Amino acid sequence: MLNDPSSTTSSHFHIHTNTIHIKSAKMVYTIVVHLYAKDDEECLKKLTAKLIEASRVYSQDKETLSWHVMQSTHDRRAFTIVERYEQESSQKYHLENPYWKTFDPYVIPLLEKPMDLRRFEELDTSKDVEVPQ
Question: Which UniProt keywords apply (predicted)?
Answer without folding.
Answer: Monooxygenase, Oxidoreductase
